[in-house]
């Protein structure tokens, strides 16, 4: 079940350092939202604050509101563990669990939470998730092999399979293709296009063509200078951002005239 | 730019640019020079009454100097320095090996005399001369060490988990500090601590196996904490984050992701910590004492342990002093074997539990 996320006046801190300031945005369900911007402007930081992964780091905290279908994710009585169960995440670098087989990696979300499952049910989840991540054909004969024995692109798709196996409402992806070859990248883009039927997807990317290819909405983050907080400069439909952006800074960045 | 490439004559001999062909010493030349060094060394030491140690010493010094000079003349400075440093490092290694080899040789030589079935099956009950064995001490050492491990491993492992996964600020800093201090505690102090503790509770003259286990734990806990902490730190943060992002609570992440990933290192660390305390003598001397018969109950009276057994065999021989001396050496040999076995076990653990990448 895809869900809508509304962010209002979000400030994100690392200790005393204000990394991202004043973000207001609405992320639509059943669509892909891309976040672009120069390095260090706070895209990853913002993404991680959407599923409360930000506060895992010591000293990291957040001010403001993130509301998903009416539920305040940062309310005092909201359990971050529940938030992360319904908002999955794929990281920039593939990180399969090295002690687990491919099979166990895919159903790690269930196994680690000690969810009781029948063998047949688990098999079904594994196959469905691996098919969903476009990896089934490549690994179906070696599900009991270690996940770390796969290639980088396969590992990333394994991580996507692992994330979608717990049926989240939203999927956050932080530069999921930055370590991949063009073929794997295309596979993952196709995959995202399929997944957006069922999930809300937010993707951070440095690849402008990718943002233009896959996303419906695009947000441009920027920062005014070193040590300044990053801001969401512009958030608009992707076509508009890439053809006729509202802000000069956006146009400069997209056309490569960036300082 | 070096001089050689600028000189026209050399340039003709050695054509292509910066990669020059060097002249090399013949492969057997260093060996021959060392052999010559040893020969001259033998002569030199014969002047002062022949001695093997002196011959080897002269040989090493003269051989190294000869190889250095020869290499310098033929191969140039860089290669000569390389040979010199190689010789120094090798010598340092050889010097370090001397005590080890000599120790193992001596213990084998003297310990094998009584390394027999009787040693493993008999106690010293009513033995005043030949015969007897260390059956009671072997079992005592195993029981007390196992008990010490049973106390130290949970405490040490949980402490290290706290330090790596949960701790922050003052508390973490002070725990780290006290663990460091504990690492340096002399073993006799640990023994006296356990002695004082149990004397306070049970009154004077108390001797129990478990007292020894407590004393050993005081020595073992900091070692376990330290090694487990290092191993847990090596678990990449990405794996923790991957687990959190799946909606797994922190404690489950620690139990099901961090510990299994680190299991090889943890097992190795614990095994080496056991090896560290298994040969401790002083703390057991004051807490467990010694008996000649077999007592397998660590909660009831004195027990025998291998190190203390060896100590008493050596210092308080009975009628047949040689028999006592032989048993002391065999006990020492057995201790070395146990420590070696533990090290091998540690290696096996790290081999078999290491995360597999296999294809
Ligand atoms: N763990 C951290 N502790 C302190 N500051 C951090 C931490 N991680 C990031 N920052 C700071 O927060 C700001 C935003 O970083 P962030 O990683 O979100 O950038 P980004 O937009 O994802 O960049 P990139 O495109 O290079 O991944 C940067 O100034 C960075 O130095
Ligand atoms: Mg980033």
From TrEMBL, chain A:
Gene3D superfamilies per record: P-loop containing nucleotide triphosphate hydrolases (3.40.50.300)
**GO biological process assignments:** phosphate ion transmembrane transport
Residue ranges annotated for the ABC transporter domain, each copy included:
5-248
Tell me the keywords, alphabetical order.
ATP-binding, Nucleotide-binding, Translocase, Transport
Q: Which GO terms describe its molecular function?
A: ATP binding; ATP hydrolysis activity; phosphate transmembrane transporter activity
Task: Answer yes or no on keyword Repeat.
Answer: no
Q: Give a GO cellular-component term.
A: membrane
Pfam families on file:
ABC_tran
Q: Which CDD domains match?
A: ABC_PstB_phosphate_transporter (cd03260)
Q: State the SMART domains in the record.
A: AAA
Q: Quote the SUPFAM superfamilies the UniProt record gives.
A: P-loop containing nucleoside triphosphate hydrolases
Q: Give the range the annotation lists for the signal sequence.
A: none
Q: Does the keyword Kinase apply?
A: no
Q: Which PANTHER family match?
A: ABC TRANSPORTER I FAMILY MEMBER 17
- Name of the featured protein: Phosphate ABC transporter ATP-binding protein (PhoT family)
TrEMBL record, chain B:
Q: Give the way it sits in the membrane.
A: Multi-pass membrane protein
**Cellular localization per UniProt:** Cell membrane
Superkingdom classification of source: Bacteria
Please report which protein family the annotation says this sequence is part of. Belongs to the binding-protein-dependent transport system permease family. CysTW subfamily.
Q: Does the keyword Membrane apply?
A: yes
* Listed GO CC annotations: plasma membrane
Q: Which GO terms describe its molecular function?
A: phosphate transmembrane transporter activity
Q: Which organism is it from?
A: Blastococcus xanthinilyticus
PANTHER family reported for this sequence: PHOSPHATE TRANSPORT SYSTEM PERMEASE PROTEIN PSTA (PTHR42922)
The name under which this protein is listed is: Phosphate transport system permease protein PstA
